[in-house]
Amino acid sequence: RKLIIMEDYLNLSVDDLIIKLTDVVKDDDTLQKFRNECEELLVNTCGFLKDKVNNFFVEQNLMNNHTAEGILEAFDLNNVFDGLRRFDDQVTALESTCGYITPVEIPLGYRMDSILDRKSGTYKPNRVMETFQYVPVIDTFRLVISYPTISNAVLNEQKSPEGILSSFLDGQHAANHEFLQRFPHAIRIQLCYDELQIVNPLGSKTGIHKLGAFYYKIQNLPLHINSELNSIHVLLLCADVDVKKYGFRAILQPFLNEMKTLESDEGKLVYTRNGPFTLRATLAAFIGDGLAVHDVFNLLGPSSNKFYRMCMYSKDDLHAGSLELGQERTKNLYQAHVDSLIADNFSDRQKTATGMHGDCCLNDLKYFHVTRNKIFDPMHDFLCGICPMVIKLVLQQYIPVAKKFDCKYLNGNISSFQWGFCEITNKPSANFTESMLRRRDYSLNQKVMQVWCLIRALPFLLSEKIASDDEYMTLIKNLLQIMEIVFAPKLYRFQMPYFDALVKEFWTNFQLLFPDINALDKFHHVSHYRQFMLWDGPAINYWCMREEAKHGAVKARAQVVRNFKNPPKTLIKIFQCGQSSKWGGEDVSLFRVQAFCQLRGNVESNKEYKQGTQSVNINSQANENLASTSTSDGSFMSTPNFSDTLASSSSSYYPPESAKIALAKAVVSEFPNSKDNFSDDGW
What we know:
By secondary structure, the protein is of the alpha+beta class. It is built from 29 helices and twelve strands. The chain is globular. The protein folds into four domains: 6-97; 104-297 and 360-372, no CATH class; 378-527, no CATH class; 590-679, no CATH class. Strands 1-2-6-5-4-9 form a six-stranded mixed sheet, with helices on both faces.
């Protein structure tokens, strides 16, 4: 850091230390002990260095020099952490040095509570204000774009080549978005809502202390930055009981007010350390699990008859095994349903017929409507729904029914399987029992990542007992082929008809193998994934995995603090400290953004890659060779072409081994001289 004044450097370094430890250490007592040990270590180290320098000055006969005296005084460190011992003092320091954004406490109303009168020893009624915590989006955007490389990444974002889907810009939604057509580099907000439980889910306080959290990402930023938890910004924290009491319109009103400014043609002019910048933004996507999305969109729950938010498909259609899509919920149909609800005074009959409670407050935004939000969460649809159900049904057929092996064999194979370094923390638990398989539910007692790991490894785990052409194992493989496309970070448009064929084959085989089983509503979601991916880009960009991980820090902190007087006010400060440690503390991997922008610009403008003194043109034949890559079983592989691979070499994901081999073969065949150069990079 370019700091000239020693005191300023010392203070800023101590601030950074405190905030980074606060973001990691959840226990205040542990943090206090660590802080004291650090202070003692610093004082002792400076004392040791002072003695060494003093001895040198004595030997050189420099003790009477004023400069030497000043140098020795610089080693006198006492009370390094003064003014930073209390959390409020730390927040004050962060506001001045690390861009800490203070949450705004917004009142909603009042409730009656009881307060202890210590003199009489009795409880008396007391009126308590109900509030929620809101973090202004304009202040957050100002903090994020204060880095020149970040603002350059936003301004230099480009679409993928024709026929490739890798981001929101490549979908039909962006092509038909009026605001983005006029302002292509406006900030795109990806909003998420979820509920989190900060107490024991089996305890008696679960409903009282449940929180509602709105998070958002900035879609314009590279994936490797958006995958970090502190790049998932907090919009607001509120009590779930307040959401049910006052509704989402009251909770989201501050956000809607700010968005009116950001969605205007004039935008919002902000001043950063790099000069003025005109902020424009729009809500591009809303994500969440099925229940959360239906709540915010003011629709009936997923268990209702008209359970689907994109069409008028019903539970009866699902249980009848119909593959036909229902009548699409267009903007006109949506408004007709709202009008019918108003005309019938929001009767239960009309709610059941339309699948709606009423209008959604997000429709107040100028360029957003719930009918244009065709997004699903592949984590909840596949890893929490379809995969556990299919795995359990197949294992029920293999173990209790056909008795091809027992649970001991399955658990032994899981324990002894070579999961590899990357999956060692995600390997499934060897806890299968026959009683668990016979239960009338589809829970596997595994975490989401364990389910994903298990279904990919299941054909290998059972290969000694189950033939490769077994009809139940074929169903598993069919599902894996679907998931390969759904979870791919980059897709080709020509894969979509193939994807539709896979979905129809899976649905047909499932009905043949399990005719008496009612499918989950998530099975119908998959029928719309083609439309979803063509509209908004790869589904993996919209899963809630990272948002779910964001809950971890606040849950751990709540368990330590155990102060439930106003949990949103207490816990949102923890979120903001993490944001300051990343964005205000210059802890962003900016060099990767810079490399991404430069490399992307070179590839898009020149379409050539220079190797030493030789300039190699990336011709269309090389791209065609890579685009035609397929796996041995005939399924298409989501492998980027050569130019895009160069541009995304710093991306947050890496291709699977099969894709690396295919890419290496194509590169070597087209550019023999590049073999040695690319081998050093692992290709």
